[in-house]
Automatic annotation (TrEMBL):
Keyword Magnesium: no
Residues annotated as transmembrane: 21-42, 62-84, 96-114, 120-139, 151-170, 182-199
Protein name per the record: DUF2306 domain-containing protein
Sorted UniProt keywords: Membrane, Transmembrane, Transmembrane helix
Keyword Nuclease: no
Amino acid sequence: MKNEMTLPVDGQALRDHDTSLLLKTWTLNHICANVLGLAILHPFLAHYFTGTHDKALTMPQLIMHNVSVVTFMVILVVLQNRALQSRFSLGTFRGLSYFLLFVPAAFWLGYYTLYIPFDIIFMYVAIGIINARVIAPLLPKPRQWAWKCILSFLLGGIAGAACGIAAYFAGLKDAGGMVRDYGMWSLISVTAAVTYTSLTKRVLRQQLTEICN
């Protein structure tokens, strides 16, 4: 009788531990992906080799920007899925093809229609839309996850872009080329990541509680 009472408690404790681990790694991995992909690699890949640019990009600049965005997506997807693997069974590269196709397209759509900072905002919205679709089947309330996920990434993109613009006019515009780039993208990426992870983590916690119950 004692064993019968203990097993459910142990099982619940294990699920709680897995949930806690997922939420921690979800936040940490997304922040790391943004820092590595955007704050560190993007200025180097997109601007160091081909130089600064105005709205019109040369072909080498266009290629290197795409290389940078694709690199960011690979890092983000791998780290995101590693976090989800603490609770769900899924492949490390799950959904990668969607990210590689639609996120660069959204980035350039924003850039060539409304210009900066809508390239950044559109990029994060695209990530949110894809995550709404890819992660939803894992959760008990997929529709609720979908719209909250998209909204979270939208707010993250807006917050990151606003922080970057504020820093630019506060003094970063007078800094040197690469110093300005690293400063801008560090502020943009960290602010965006902290914003959307804090929001999506709450949604994930609610959804995972539903599974446990």
